[in-house]
Structures are given as structure tokens and as C-alpha cells.
């Protein structure tokens, strides 16, 4: 499957082929056996009929798909989710890995200079903080690094 990222950038459903630029992680949903790909700070879902859906993440130049009180603007170009906002509106910061729990909950590991956390995306498409935080909560980030590593190792079992 050839995928062109330019067509994926700001749309939720894609009908055309897409080019992957930097795929970092793959995961298969235990609910419907669909392949999920982490690429260019978005999570893509490839359906059985070869449609590609954006299920989490929003590139900074893309407009918000819906206004929500759960979204917090960190800067002029960035928006983050405190609790239960649409995953397609949340910016993923340095996402590194994907994993599914047996109940279909998708976990996204974000681990970079300013962030060390895991966020979960439920089957309704809402994203929430699961563990860890950002540089603003520096002590929490330091404390969560070990927990994050243990969590990631545990998810490998699923």
C-alpha cells in the first residue's frame, strides 16, 4: 500500500494512497484486527477495505476539527488535551510507540525533551492522560520515566 502523507495531513478519512514518511510503530487492534501506524506524529488506522483513517494526532498546521473545553492552548500553534477530548484534535508530542490493551484501549507513548508520558485513546476516540507529564511537571516527569519504561515493557506482552 502506497500512502501519500500530504493527503492525510488535515483529513480524517482518506480514500487515496498515502506515502509514509517516518513510521515508528505498528500495532494491531484486538477489537477489529486493523493495523495502526504511528507516522509523522499521527496515528493512522488501515481498514479492511484499505481506507486510511486518522485516529489520533493533529499536525500543527491543521485546524481544530471541533472546539472542546478539554483542549488547552499551550502556544499559538499547539493544543493539548487535559481529559477526554477528541484524539484527532490533540497534538502528539514526540510519539514513539503504540500498543493496544486487550479491551481495545490504544496507548501512545510520548517521550522527548519536554514530555514523558503515556496517553490512552478509548474506543470512542477520546484521548486522556494515562501516566507521566510534560516539562511543566518536571518532578512528575522524572518520577514517571521508570514507570513509563515498565509500562512499555508490560505492553509488549499484549
Mind explaining what this structure looks like?
The protein has 158 residues and is mainly β. It has two helices and twelve strands. A five-stranded antiparallel sheet has the order 1-5-4-3-2, with no helix packed on it.
Short description, anyone?
The chain is mostly beta strands.
Q: What is the CA–CA distance across the termini?
A: 26 Å
Strand coverage percent:
35-45%
The main pleated sheet reads as: 5 strands, antiparallel
Order of helices and strands: HEEEEEEEEEEEEH
Average of pLDDT? 76
Strand order of the largest sheet: 1-5-4-3-2
Gross geometry: globular
- The total beta strand count reads 12
Helix/strand/pairing class, anyone? mainly beta
Q: Helix proportion of residues, in percent? A: 10-25%
Q: How many helices does DSSP assign?
A: 2
Give the C-alpha Rg: 15 Å
Given as residue ranges, the uncertain stretches (5+ residues, pLDDT < 50) are: 1-8
Give the assembly state of these chains: single chain
Question: What labels would you give this structure?
Answer:
mainly beta, five-stranded antiparallel β-sheet, 2 helices, disordered N terminus
SSE blueprint:
Blueprint: H1 5-8, E1 13-14, E2 23-28, E3 35-39, E4 42-46, E5 52-56, E6 71-73, E7 79-81, E8 83-86, E9 95-100, E10 106-111, E11 115-121, E12 126-134, H2 138-155
Antiparallel strand pairs: 1-5, 2-3, 3-4, 4-5, 6-7, 8-12, 9-10, 10-11, 11-12
Amino acid at each position: 500500500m502506497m500512502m501519500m502523507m500530504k493527503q492525510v495531513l488535515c483529513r480524517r478519512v482518506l480514500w487515496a494512497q498515502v506515502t509514509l514518511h517516518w513510521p515508528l510503530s505498528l500495532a494491531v487492534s484486538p477489537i477489529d484486527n486493523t493495523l495502526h501506524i504511528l507516522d509523522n506524529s499521527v496515528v493512522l488506522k488501515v481498514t479492511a477495505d484499505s481506507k486510511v483513517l486518522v485516529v489520533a494526532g493533529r499536525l500543527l498546521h491543521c485546524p481544530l476539527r471541533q472546539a472542546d473545553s478539554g483542549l488547552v492552548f499551550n502556544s499559538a500553534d499547539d493544543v493539548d488535551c487535559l481529559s477526554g477530548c477528541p484524539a484527532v484534535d490533540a497534538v502528539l508530542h514526540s510519539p514513539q510507540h503504540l500498543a493496544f490493551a486487550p479491551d481495545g484501549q490504544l496507548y501512545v507513548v510520548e517521550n522527548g525533551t519536554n514530555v514523558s508520558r503515556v496517553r490512552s485513546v478509548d474506543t470512542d476516540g477520546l484521548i486522556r492522560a494515562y501516566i507521566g507529564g510534560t516539562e511543566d511537571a518536571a518532578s512528575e516527569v522524572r518520577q514517571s520515566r521508570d514507570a513509563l519504561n515498565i509500562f512499555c515493557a508490560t505492553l509488549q506482552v499484549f
